[in-house]
Design a protein that fits this description.
272 residues; 7-stranded mixed sheet
Length: 272
């Protein structure tokens, strides 16, 4: 079975090695727009809608992060991209790690934003499957409409209330089939900590100080796994802790996340 290309969007003009930006759940490439606007001049950024999200269709394959990574790889290489700095937020981070494992020659650098390398616990996996079943049964995205309250930090809840209707509109714009597919794909993913231990290109990890979904401990675990292979010292940006934000760090403080990604991109370019 052959899949058509995933939908892609130029979010920041530039040249050379691009940043490929992979969104979190249950969103699409739009969550990266504000962050991409703060990237340094010349840093090209491409947003991708993952399977069933935004403008990308599903293709009949069983839910799988591995298949998603292969699909991203095929979409990028068929568009003429030989390699990229791959950046993933949350679910997008799971896809980025799968890309680094399955297509290491394509991944010139790895940005892991508000995500983790470990697999779900049995409890978390069961919850994902229950939500997927509820979405299928209702044929709506209603079962995930309450997510924004958990995705953002306490500071955003108090001071950035304008983000709630934005997140709500993005979630309402997703297809029920895509939401259910993504939940099942995430539930089935393995632990990929060992991928970071073997990865030999630059790594940057970003986490919100108020993130309760993928907290600081998960970020520190990834940095330890990457170790010297990360090629970035903590002072250079291997771990960026963004104050006053939760799991939606990319949306809550796009400028801070862009600064970390710009540093990662410049490091990759400088060492090519």
């Amino acid at each position: 079975m052959t899949s058509q290309a995933l939908a892609t969007f130029t979010l920041h003009d530039g040249g050379g090695v691009p940043l490929v930006l992979l969104h979190g759940f249950p969103l699409d490439h739009r969550m990266w727009a504000a962050c991409a606007a703060f990237l340094p001049p010349g840093a090209r950024a491409i947003g991708v809608d993952l399977p069933g999200a935004g403008h990308s269709d599903l293709d009949g394959f069983q839910p799988s992060i591995d298949h998603t990574a292969d699909w991203v790889y095929r979409t990028m290489t068929e568009a003429g991209e030989g390699n990229a700095v791959v950046v993933g937020h949350s679910m997008g981070g799971y896809v980025a790690l799968a890309l680094a494992e399955r297509h290491p020659g394509f991944v010139a650098g790895l940005g892991l934003v508000s995500t983790k390398s470990t697999a779900d616990t049995e409890e978390a996996r069961a919850k994902r499957l229950r939500i997927a079943a509820a979405v299928d049964a209702s044929q709506t995205v209603d079962p995930v409409l309450s997510m924004p309250a958990a995705l953002v930090g306490a500071t955003t809840t108090e001071r950035r209330r304008h983000l709630f209707p934005v997140l709500d509109s993005w979630i309402r714009g997703q297809s029920p089939a895509g939401v259910a597919w993504a939940q099942r794909a995430m539930a089935a993913r393995p632990d990929r900590t060992a991928v970071l231990e073997r990865f030999d290109a630059p790594v940057s990890v970003v986490v919100g100080a108020e993130d309760t979904i993928t907290p600081l401990a998960e970020a520190e675990h990834m940095v330890r796994a990457a170790g010297t292979s990360a090629r970035l010292s903590a002072g250079d940006g291997a771990l960026t802790l963004v104050p006053g934000v939760g799991h939606m760090s990319v949306v809550e403080d796009p400028q801070a996340v862009a600064a970390a990604l710009g540093l990662l991109h410049s490091h990759v370019v400088a060492h090519r």
